Amino acid sequence: MSGFAELGLSSWLVEQCRQLGLKQPTPVQLGCIPAILEGRDCLGCAKTGSGKTAAFVLPILQKLSEDPYGIFCLVLTPTRELAYQIAEQFRVLGKPLGLKDCIIVGGMDMVAQGLELSRKPHVVISTPGRLADHLRSSNTFNMKKIRFLVMDEADRLLEQGCTDFTTDLETILAAVPSRRQTLLFSATLTDTLKELQGLATNQPFFWEAEAPVCTVEQLDQRYLLVPEKVKDAYLVHLVQSFQDQHEDWSIIIFTNTCKTCQILCMMLRKFNFPTVALHSMMKQKERFAALAKFKSSIYRILIATDVASRGLDIPTVQVVINHNTPGLPKIYIHRVGRTARAGRQGRAITLVTQYDIHLVHAIEEQIKKQLEELSVEEAEVLQILTQVNVVRRECEIKLEAAHFDEKKEINKRKQLILEGKDPDLEAKRKAELAKIKQKNRRFKKKVEQTLKRQKAGSASRGHRPPRPRSQELRAEASDSRCQQPHTDS
Ligand SMILES: Nc1ncnc2c1ncn2[C@@H]1O[C@H](COP(=O)(O)OP(=O)(O)OP(=O)(O)O)[C@@H](O)[C@H]1O
Ligand SMILES: [Mg+2]
Fold it and tell me: Exposure pattern of 181-197 as b/e (b: 16+ CB <10 Å)?
């Protein structure tokens, strides 16, 4: 098997890898490092936890050591915590070089960042929003000579999700030279491949792992079909059982909103589970502190929104629990990828209500694997049901008293004003969009019902199609006694 030395890296870098415990290159590193060293653009698509970071950090450090200057490389990532993690990799691997790095993310002092940028660091690691702010407002630095532009989680940077990076990326791309090497990495590149190919035009090298399943083999993937209103009791039961069965344990729970994240954190703490929260309504310093406490196992549970779903590498995580079924398969892939990293074992449990079954099918279709049902002691859940519901309600009341929703509204308005938008106009636009979406949903439902009727007709004529798993799950769901509508808690 080929080692790092055979990939064209200098002996000091090979020694750094050895000291960090990276003995043999992973497949994505074997594929991408030589191509990057040859001067080609690179698109690397490999499973979560497969070592994509070192696949770009190592060749960049190699090239930097041959011709050191600042600013040599710009790395963009969608989240602040990930920017710090990547900077750490550059720092430890590039220590013998005396590498100067600089992290430019929102929520931190802009003046201090400006000063650091003007000192020409070798590598800048940044989230797009804050870097674009600096580029628009300052002339004390420039990016005209950068040799490498890296986009980690490139598909997220390009898609228009809840945070839209498009205008900031335009500002950044206008500030970097067109003669550069562009390196794009993610575990889910394929649906944004066209846009990405437009960015990486210099003899692009595309590396994708050939694998029948998109998630890692060591990951045990389960679902738990639960009625909406008893979901939290199941969550408490799952955490309690895991705590009882393991001495050394660590869990990430993903939620769909900041508010749910905050309420569940308060609730789990009331049950004496060592829990910290991570979501975008927290101050940046609190976010870093929460993550540090979780990483050092002072707190065993991290409850987070999707701000923690991409890139974060916390080797101790054994279980990921999806409190809500992710609306998009690729969100699922990244969330569950926070465990079972670098060849370790891990487990993912997704709570599925009777309203989410179609989402599970979309996930299974994309990952090309069926989730297995998790069995739990229902009697034990029933025992704690009332207590959990009462505690949750108490937490909701407490949060309402702390004006959580108002703070969120104020933050949103502030953000829109900063982006140069009119908050009232935006609200109108959103309402109109919601109306259109609702109309589309109604139309889709009608089509589905018609198709169902047609299918039922053909079945009654003796022409019976095999029963797909979706129907099995639906049948199970209709057995569940609770018919509570799906509300965002
Ligand atoms: N060659 C190697 N040998 C052993 N461990 C490695 C090697 N390369 C990387 N690792 C380790 O694997 C873990 C995961 O690496 P990394 O965070 O780069 O994964 P990734 O592919 O970027 O995942 P994600 O898609 O979630 O961002 C890290 O702890 C890293 O130190
Ligand atoms: Mg990564």
Answer: bbbbbbbbbeebbeebe
